[in-house]
Amino acid sequence: MAFTIRKLKTDEEINDVAALAKEIWTEHYVPLIGAAQTEYMIAVFQSASRIKSDIAEKNYSYFAVFPDGSNEQIAYLALQPDDKGVFLSKIYVKKEYRRQGAAKMLTDFALDFAKESTRMPDSVYAKTKYARPRLWLTVNKGNAGSIEFYKKVGFVIDKEAVTDIGNDFYMNDYIMTLYFEAEE
Fold first, then answer.
1. Fewer CB within 10 A of the terminal residue: the chain, N end or C end?
2. Predicted model pTM
3. N-acetyltransferase domain: which residues (predicted)?
């Protein structure tokens, strides 16, 4: 199946991604972290207002994925350049579109975005002393399918992280990294 990636620009696109996030998260994360934490994380990290804030205030770029010839969003991605390279903050695909190449296409897109971002002379990364730029992410330790996928496309587990996200909830994650060579 062929897909198109488009950067989110309008409130309608952002609202659609927030609705997609709720659908994906409810299906995928309730069995993993429970309904209460899933609902909390959707409200705090995946809402339309949070997406708008991430874009306006935190230098995030959000993208939606569409099957070619369709306006149905079936996946989304959020990237944030930082001093290490680029943080792959969000990469989520609707259940019925998994294992059809969308996640691989998104990770390839994220890697290209990271390479381009780190080349920019005014990038946050360019102002640091990191030897090798990286595309990095956090993934729940119990999310075996995603961990397997990330390893398959070249990510390695760098460390573990337990993060207090408020409301007596914690994220118990691996930090996974895909290192790449800086390009001139």
1. C
2. 0.93
3. 3-181
Domain boundaries, the chain: 3-179
Question: Taking the CA of residue 16 as centre, how many other CA atoms within 13 Å lie in the half-sphere pointing to its CB?
Answer: 19
Highest CATH level, class, for 3-179:
alpha beta
Spatial CA neighbour of 121 closest among 163, 81, 171, 176: 81
Per-residue pLDDT of the chain (184 residues), as tens digits, is 789 999 999 999 999 999 999 999 999 999 999 999 999 999 999 999 999 999 999 999 999 999 988 889 999 999 999 988 999 999 999 999 999 899 999 999 999 999 999 888 888 887 776 668 999 999 999 999 999 999 999 999 999 999 999 999 999 999 999 999 866 5
- What does the H/E/C string look like for 40-54? HHHHHHCCHHHHHHH
Which tokens is 36 given?
């209460």
Element (H, E) at 110: helix 102-119
